[in-house]
């Protein structure tokens, strides 16, 4: 069990500031997602926790104790790397047993732990195969099993299921969530997939260029983004952000005078018969429908439940659900959410 904290941590590689003055608190037993675009510093954060990299400035604490001078082995954190790093000449079973054999754990304990973990991951039937004979999803599970079989203070996973197809990713993330809860361990999980982060995380940090832009529970970040950047990172389709010059077409009361732009989630954009905007596209997606609406040359997205009877070319009036407009200043920082 472990909480993990970063205190003003900076890590540079030459001229690149990979991690820029990051302060983070990951509580014990959390499923914590690091989320952001490529090269925003997420993997470097994991390597700093693991002890493979060292901060240039600041301090990292595990369970409240600084780990600057603690070797990776003594930190006792288990990692699943993006490239899985399975040993090709060993069977799945030997790969999974490896961290325990290396630590000279007694064979009975090894057998019990391997059975426990392989049952949880439903891979008991493939243990005799080497990695080359496994599917991508199976290899992924073997790599995850090899991390879970240890008894570390925390697990770190670097985009562990990005190589899987959409359905398998969805299944695996649900399982990971379940297993993390069963194990009762802190899991720090890197992803660049907002849906994955939103669905599994207790708490998350959103990164941009090595900086943490906002941390919190996914639903809080979704409802109360502190900036257009965070707003745009969560939700699909993304939040509509329109310049205030167009806001009068959305019938929003009490607009702050300092606002530069107004943000509306697609599910909070109301569409009714009337004038002011034109529907340009209708995408029926089964349970809901996505509409694209042209507001004076600016395309806005709206999601509606079911299959509403709107068609392309139709004139409509737009409005925003009461209390669901966001206002941003010229720098993109939130002013107030209504
Ligand atoms: N060992 C290294 N040497 C030099 N530069 C590095 C090294 N590791 C990371 N970087 C740089 O630090 C920055 C952050 O990289 P990092 O891998 O942490 O980002 P990331 O958000 O995990 O990206 P991805 O989602 O693509 O894995 C990048 O600009 C990267 O090129």
Automatic annotation (TrEMBL):
Entry superkingdom: Bacteria
Domain ABC transporter per the UniProt entry, residue ranges: 4-234
Swiss-Prot/TrEMBL keywords: ATP-binding, Hydrolase, Nucleotide-binding, Plasmid, Transport
Pfam families to which the protein is assigned, alphabetical: ABC_tran (PF00005), TOBE_2 (PF08402)
E.C. code: 3.6.3.19
Gene3D superfamilies found in the cross-reference section: 2.40.50.100, Nucleic acid-binding proteins, P-loop containing nucleotide triphosphate hydrolases
Keyword Ribosomal protein attached: no
Keyword Lipid biosynthesis: no
Cellular component terms (Gene Ontology): ATP-binding cassette (ABC) transporter complex, substrate-binding subunit-containing
GO molecular function: ABC-type transporter activity; ATP binding; ATP hydrolysis activity
Record-linked PROSITE patterns: ABC_TRANSPORTER_1, ABC_TRANSPORTER_2
Record-stated family: Belongs to the ABC transporter superfamily.
Family annotation (PANTHER family): MALTODEXTRIN IMPORT ATP-BINDING PROTEIN MSMX, OSMOPROTECTIVE COMPOUNDS UPTAKE ATP-BINDING PROTEIN GGTA
Protein name, as recorded: Maltose/maltodextrin import ATP-binding protein MalK
């Amino acid at each position: 069990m472990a909480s993990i904290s970063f205190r003003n941590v900076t890590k540079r590689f030459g001229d690149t500031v990979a991690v820029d003055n990051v302060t983070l608190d990951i509580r014990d037993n959390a499923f914590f997602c690091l989320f952001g675009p490529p090269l925003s510093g997420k993997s470097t954060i994991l390597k700093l926790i693991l002890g493979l990299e060292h901060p240039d400035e600041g301090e990292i604490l595990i369970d409240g104790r600084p780990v600057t001078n603690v070797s990776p082995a003594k930190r006792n954190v288990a990692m699943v790397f993006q490239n899985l790093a399975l040993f090709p000449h060993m069977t799945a079973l030997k790969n999974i047993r490896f961290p325990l054999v290396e630590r000279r754990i007694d064979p009975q304990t090894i057998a019990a732990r391997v059975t426990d973990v392989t049952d949880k991951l439903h891979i008991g039937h493939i243990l005799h195969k080497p990695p080359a004979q496994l599917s991508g999803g199976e290899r992924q599970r073997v790599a995850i099993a090899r991390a879970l079989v240890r008894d570390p203070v925390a697990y770190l996973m670097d985009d562990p299921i990005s190589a899987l197809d959409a359905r398998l990713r969805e299944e695996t993330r649900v399982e990971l969530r379940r297993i993390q809860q069963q194990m009762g361990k802190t899991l720090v999980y890197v992803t660049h997939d907002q849906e994955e982060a939103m669905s599994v995380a207790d708490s998350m940090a959103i990164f941009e260029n090595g900086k943490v832009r906002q941390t919190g529970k996914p639903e809080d970040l979704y409802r109360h983004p502190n900036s257009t950047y965070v707003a745009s990172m969560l939700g699909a389709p993304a939040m509509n952000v329109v310049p205030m010059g167009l806001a009068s077409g959305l019938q929003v009361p009490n607009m702050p005078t300092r606002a530069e732009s107004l943000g509306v989630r697609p599910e909070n954009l109301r569409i009714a018969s009337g004038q002011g905007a034109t529907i340009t596209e209708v995408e029926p997606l089964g349970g809901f429908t996505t509409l694209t609406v042209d507001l004076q040359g600016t395309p806005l997205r709206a999601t509606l439940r079911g299959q509403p009877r709107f068609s392309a070319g139709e004139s409509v009036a737009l409005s925003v659900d009461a209390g669901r407009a966001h206002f941003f200043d010229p720098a993109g920082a939130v002013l107030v959410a209504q």
